[in-house]
Amino acid sequence: MIMQRIQTSILNFFRNRKVFWFLFFFYFIGFILEMLYRNFFFELTVHDLGYQAQPIFNLLFNGKYYNSFEGMHPIANHFRPGLLVFLPFIKLIATPIWLLFFKIVAYMSCPLILLKYGKKYFVIEKYAYTLPILWLLNDIVSRTLNFQNVSTGIILPFIMLAFFMAYENRHKSMYLLLILVLFFKESMALVWLSVGAFKFVISKQYRHGIFLFISGMIIGIFVHFGLMPMFNAGNLSNHHRLFAPFSYIPLKIIMFIKVFLSTGLILLVRPLVLLFVLPAFGLYVVGAKLGFFYISAHHHDFTITITFVGMFFVLKSYLEGSTWLNNLKLSKQKIMVTTALFLLMVVGFSTGMPYLSLLRPIYKNGSYAEQFKLSREAIQIFDKIDKGITVYSCKGTGSYLLKHPDVRHLQYSTLELFSEKNAVSFYVVYPKNRKYMGIDSQLFSLINNKVQEGLNNGSCVDLNLFEYFNIYLINKKTIDS
User: Into how many domains does the chain fold?
Assistant: First the structure.
């Protein structure tokens, strides 16, 4: 009797309207607060926010579509011209947090899409809340909000909608969405493969499915081997060296296990859906980047989105009584379902909650007051330096200097410029407190040593403008003379 009550309570939790809306606003407010915290407490980074926002700033304020962090045309290394959609917003208020804001909006749109179509297609309407609640509690999805990579994060609802447009045979809308997502990452041709497979196995529209699948392959090959090299002096993207389909096989297997465990193995209730979910993982199967296989990063935002589409059609089939699970006794069904949901609920509440980053200064031995003053000083740096001189800045500082036409990342290679005879003058900008630099202690020491040498021989000028920042001008004319 007690076990039945527990099972009923768990099921009610995942099909309760009030639970969903409470979690929805709890997460939305939490992520907005985290976004504001990052902006006002010096936790914006050039990886990857600065890298993706700087070309937009450069085009808007300097008339040049160029990524100075990577030292190349923005399309040379990643195909994401779609990010230029942020131009009017950045023109209105020149801040990169627009990108983070719309990533949050995109994330919060997906459970609303699942809710809408759940009410439309589930034979038992109260289960329309199940997947939206699971989305909010899914730690893979929510953790992507901790990373300042936005290119695929802002198109998740468009990816999800493409499948529902395909299901409803609204092909004009489907193709519009499929074309749209191509402009946000070179790997988005994989979405065409998944939608094509969806058309084949779910809609039974075999010719259309094969056409979409082949089209996706052709588009992906053209973007990688034809279009992107046009902006890179004929060279392939740096990411092509990561092609290694037979490397890291154990890690790739573990990756799939983790992804499907994070969804309670729900896809196995109707294994047919795997045929359109798995193509989304194609890049990770053939790649050799370790970040692909550790699902706590941002890389799995679009793959888990397609996985949720698969879960939608699994749940739809289950409610219609057409899965192998329906053939089991009702008591066994409840045990299996409630156990999976309970574990997902526990994991979601313990690992994927927002608000945690707000406490970072406490458990990272930082200082709210110092981080706030750093961010306020950082936004003043741009007005204090020459726009015609290159700036080398550290991880956190660079995101406040995006209007500068030539801001670069402070790294080990920067050390060579201090003594290079043919180099031009440049700035180095970084916090005086190393804990806020985002670089290792060895590089911090080496930079300080080079600066001290420059101060001693007169080639380095301490601008001495701020309390919390070092700003040095390395005057190469002095060295050469």
Answer: 2
Angle between helices 189-201 and 171-181 (to 10 degrees): 150
Let me know how long the chain is. Answer: 481
**Within a domain: 173:** yes
For 404, the token pair is: 């500068």
Cα–Cα distance measured from residue 331 to residue 7, given in angstroms and rounded to the nearest whole number: 10
> 477: which residues sit within 8 A by CB, 6+ positions away?
425
The C-alpha atoms of residue 55 and residue 63 are separated, in whole angstroms, by 10
Task: Tell me the C-alpha distance between 153 and 165, whole Å.
Answer: 20
CA distances from 150 to 1, 34, 57, 185, 372 (A): 48, 15, 16, 10, 24
Number of Cβ atoms within 10 Å of the Cβ of 92: 9
Check whether 312 has a pLDDT greater than 70.
yes
How crowded is residue 155: how many other Cβ atoms within 10 Å of its Cβ?
28
| Mean local confidence (pLDDT), 240-262 | 82
The answer, yes or no, to whether the previous bond of 440 is cis (omega within 30 of 0) is no
Indicate the residue among 357, 380, 412 that finishes a domain: 357
Which pTM value belongs to this model?
A: 0.93
Residues 182, 85 contacting (CB under 8 angstroms): no
Model confidence at 478: pLDDT above 50: no
- Whether residues 320 and 407 share a domain: the answer is no
